[in-house]
Design a protein that fits this description.
- It is a single chain.
- The radius of gyration is 30 Å and the shape is globular.
- It is an alpha/beta fold and 556 residues long.
- It contains 25 helices and 13 strands.
- The protein has a five-stranded parallel beta sheet, with helices on both faces.
- It has helices at 23-34, 42-50, 58-71, 91-103, 108-115, 129-155, 159-172, 177-189, 193-211, 217-227, 254-263, 283-293, 313-320, 329-340, 355-358, 394-405, 407-411, 414-424, 428-439, 446-452, 465-479, 483-491, 500-507, 511-523, 539-555; strands at 2-4, 10-13, 16-17, 77-79, 82-84, 272-277, 301-306, 345-352, 369-374, 384-389, 498-499, 528-529, 534-536.
Length: 556
């Protein structure tokens, strides 16, 4: 069956409307639909339908409503002492799906499709506090969609159409500031500067007379930019590009690159992309390469911020688009969202550590696309889609080695080349360090290199330079661990997979604590799962961990 809540409550079977009975019975159906399949007890249904003013026979009436709805063909299930109704074909569900695309920068056509699902006042004809609260919530969702549609129309070059739609929205919601801000932008982009400024004046007078308030920072900023004839208010064909150059030795990552490029196309609904992985695994290289690949789709600019080196990323980004940053962090965040609405802008945020440093940079509807790189996944970011980056495949590892030392040298001894690729675990910085060493020793065969390369024993008089190059990123990764994590990483190092039980014994911890500790090292990409309840070290990390353990024992 197909159900409708964005208007009068109705149900359809094979395009024939189902008779749902009197209003209170329809209200019972609406309450169950709004739960999304979560069971409600009869008492909870009574509370939702009558809000504390229920008649004496309310429970019996609820059971009667459910029975009649079932008789009409509505598949209400008895579950957990209550009633549940899952409705995959529900207009509200489809509206929310389309609206989530809007939050990800969807085109105006998607938003129009979402708004076309509305047929008037949601849950119309149903009384009670529950229905009224849901009407308020759903009306707010619709307002958000209408604002997002106006922003998308402006971004897609239809400011005049957006100005007309916004005038209707402002007439319905005169105290709402976001539509007025968008109307000012739409009028300005339509060549109607005086009318755009008049919107601000009328808004200021209305807010003062009705609420005793002044316009908010976004409206004030829009007025300032219009008065200053800010060039960033008008779309430009080309924008700033701060991307680092592409590395000529970029190799492999075909699947990951294709996923990122596809997600960054203008029609995509995924504007926030994350790349997670071990330090120096190639996250930044992949992000920059993907950004260059789609640069034509982002004519307003391609920006890059190293979060580990930037004291104020928001200020840096605002300056990059020609906007002086205000002193307050909250003002900077609001201004960033306001000024980037409608721009085809791509931002790479490199080496993120926490959700808190990213949240102020998350775009609004029709805002910029983001690529985030991080050493571990940031779970608190809404709408972010993550790619986990591991080592290169064996064939890609050999291809990178060929680019570094030449094809002839790699193909002379295929067995040694394969062994070398396996020992590096496909870690690009390890392959590059080994390649640099081999380039400096043209007389070495690869078989000889296998015996010469590697971490020296503790106390050795000299550490080869490639060891420093390989292990420096791992040292920085350990610096972000807790003492317990760092101790476990060193003590558990073994060439064979280890179990949770072995870890618990070695670390003198209860099994649950040992399991959580091992999983935290997986999150940091310092361990890899190996089947059920087992974990393993990649060889470069194993050598590093064994070396640290030996050094600590020697010091002890």
């Amino acid at each position: 069956m197909r159900y409708e809540l964005l208007g009068p409550v109705r149900a359809w079977r094979d395009d024939v409307e189902v008779e749902l009975g009197p209003p209170q019975q329809r209200a019972a159906l609406a309450v169950l639909l709004l739960q999304g399949g979560t069971p409600l007890t009869p008492s909870q249904l009574v509370s939702a339908l009558w809000s504390g003013a229920e008649p004496r026979a309310a429970l019996g009436m609820v059971r009667s409503y459910v029975s009649r709805l079932r008789h009409a063909g509505v598949p209400i299930e008895s579950s957990a002492g209550g009633y549940a109704l899952s409705a995959p074909a529900l207009d509200l569900t489809e509206f929310q799906r389309l609206l989530s695309s809007a939050r990800s920068g969807a085109p105006a056509a998607v938003l129009r499709e979402a708004l076309a699902l509305w047929r008037g006042t949601p849950l119309s004809g149903l009384n009670g506090a529950y229905a009224e609260a849901e009407r308020v919530r759903l009306a707010e969702l619709r307002l958000t969609a209408r604002e997002a549609l106006a922003a998308a129309d402006i971004a897609e070059g239809r400011p005049a159409e957006a100005a007309v739609d916004l005038a209707d929205l402002i007439a319905e919601q005169p105290l709402r500031e976001r539509p007025r801000e968008l109307q000012m932008l739409a009028l300005y982009r339509s060549g109607r500067q005086a009318e755009a400024l008049a919107v601000f004046t009328r808004t200021q007078q209305l807010l003062e007379s009705e609420l005793g308030l002044y316009p908010g920072p976004e409206l004030k900023e829009m007025q300032r930019r219009i008065l200053a004839a800010d060039p960033t208010l008008t779309p430009v064909s080309t924008g700033p590009s701060q991307l680092p150059p592409q590395l000529p030795e970029f190799t492999g990552r075909a699947t990951e690159l294709a996923t990122l490029v596809s997600s960054l196309k203008p029609s995509s609904s995924v504007p926030v992309l994350g790349i997670e992985g071990l330090a120096a695994i190639g996250k930044t290289t992949l992000a920059v390469h993907a950004a260059h690949e789609v640069s034509q789709s982002y004519p307003d600019g391609r920006l890059f911020v190293d979060l580990s080196a930037s004291p104020d990323p928001l200020a840096e980004l605002l300056r990059a688009i020609g906007v002086p940053p205000p002193p307050s962090p909250s003002e900077r965040a609001a201004l960033w969202r306001a000024r980037t609405t409608g721009l085809k802008l791509l931002v790479v945020l490199d080496d993120a550590r926490t959700e808190e440093e990213i949240r102020p940079l998350i775009p609004g509807p029709a805002g910029p696309a983001l690529i985030i790189t991080a050493r571990r996944r940031l779970y608190g970011l809404p709408h972010a889609h993550w790619t986990k980056l591991g080592g290169l495949t064996p064939s890609d590892s050999l291809a990178l080695l060929e680019r570094l030392i030449g094809r002839d040298r790699v193909t002379q001894d295929p067995q040694a080349s394969q062994a070398l690729a396996e020992r590096t675990a496909g870690f690009p910085q390890v392959i590059q360090a080994v390649g640099a060493r081999l380039s400096a020793r043209p007389a070495w065969t690869l078989a000889e290199a296998l015996t010469r390369l590697g971490r020296p024993a503790p106390g050795a008089p000299v550490t080869p330079p490639e060891c420093w190059a390989i292990e420096k990123p791992y040292e920085s990764a350990l610096a972000q661990l807790t003492p317990a994590q760092s101790r476990a990483f060193s003590l558990l190092a073994s060439p064979t997979p280890l179990s949770v039980a072995t870890a618990a014994t070695t670390l003198d911890l209860p099994l649950p604590d040992a399991a959580v500790l091992l999983e935290s090292l997986v999150d940091a990409h310092l361990l890899q799962p190996s089947g059920t309840d087992r974990y393993r070290y990649e060889e470069p990390l194993l050598m590093f961990a064994l070396g640290r353990r030996a050094e600590s024992m020697q010091v002890g």
